[in-house]
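Lecture notes, unit on protein representations.

Consider one protein chain, 484 amino acids long.
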Amino acid sequence: MQWGDTLVGISPSGKLAPSLAVQWSHSANLKTWTFDLRHGVKFQNGDPFTANDVKFSLDRYASPSATSPFASALQPILSSVKVVNKYTVQVLTTTPQAELPALLSDQANQGIILDSKYLLENAGTSFSKQSALLNKHPIGTGPFAFQSQVLGTSITFVRAKQSWHPTPAITKLVFDLVPDPTTQVNMLLSHQVDIISIDPDNVRQVTAAGMQVRRVDDADAIGLLVPGLNRPSAKGKPTENVLVREALSLAINRRVIIKDLLDGYGTLPTTPYDTTPSTEDIDVSHFASWAKQVASYDPAKAKQLLAEAGYPKGFTGIKLYTFPRPEDPGLEELAQEIADEWQAIGVDVQIVETDYDSYRPHLIHPSASDSYNAGDINTWAIGTRFDNYTPLFGYYASNGSSQLAVTNVRQIDSAITALQAEPNAAKRMQMTSDVWDEIDAQWTVIPLFNAPQLYAVNPKTVGTWTDFTAYPYLAPVLATAQRP
């Protein structure tokens, strides 16, 4: 549950919107961004919100001690933060950053602006003591304020006594930490809770009991990564050939997988992997032919491509790693379905079930000499992004997570750097389309489908709420919920 606000928000349509910053502008070189802040905002303890809190927060996220995904994205690009006046702040970056507002937006409940007075007076300058205080009792500017928690059991929020947000109809929120899906369903049906996240498998059961299912489409991107293709140990593997990677995509019947594994709750991609039509600088119409190609199921053509690549009878020796992810715990079942479909075109892969903590060192900045997964494949699920920058760097640039994989990585680096430095929105969109075209043609990431976030809701206790496109987090949704 988000107890605080970021500088930039997300609108129900999925586009960037004012939050603690009401407007923003940039210098000609896109290295200085000026944010005009909302006046009269107070933190939940009564402390006034000012530009000092923004500087304190961003400096803290950029600290070497910070380890969150947001911090790791901010640290390489943040040069300094300057307070211009009480309600104006400038963010200076090391390189041009056309999508900085998207990075500072309410993407994944990260980058919350903190109450500097509260932390400094109660925890001093120690990063660890401040973190401990935030874990014990966070203070923010959101519509719901933290009240209490029972570690490992529940967290309670109440409607903030003072907030710049419209007053929510909900006065109290209790989040019970219940990891077992079956127990969650039973608690909903027995009226112990009012909202649960739900798997497609349980939709029929809860709707038959009178509950509503509400969905957020494009919440998660599901795909396959083919990492480490440029590592020496990947040389000679069948996946080194782009025709093989395209053949593997053509052999996957995505529509059947969505029907069988997601009970129809999924959509075929319309934009590049880990993006949606709401992602900054994405021209949806440009990717129409690509989306059709991704959705194509053609085993005969897959066999033809394998033959052209030198594997007329298919091949063996490739591993398919799979591990549960918070966004999708059903990846093991997906891996088996894909392995069966590949076997039909003569490709026999070995499924390796592991855990993410064990696999991560071989995926996130692995050494060039790492042979563990080079040229093999892994299932992947991740929340979609509103900024175009993170997917591009995350999967394709030379410092990306699943690299080295694309063949012309230095050219890709230059293209990403150039589009980040382009101030003209129309030109930047075209440059974005061009670099994605180059990347997508290499099939180092094989998009499968986008999965929705599903919530089962008791309509007798929770009224209608405003959906936020591609944004699966409950904070803004619950703030808009009406009385039933």
